[in-house]
Amino acid sequence: MPDTGQTAPDFTLPRDGGDQITLSALRPAPVVLFFYPRDDTSGCTREAIAFTALQGEFEAAGAHILGISKDTVARHDKFRDKHDLGVPLLSDAEADICEQYGVWKEKSMYGKKFWGIERSTFLIDGSGQIARVWRKVKVPGHAEEVLQAVNAL
Question: Are 59 and 30 in contact (CB under 8 A)?
Answer without folding.
Answer: no
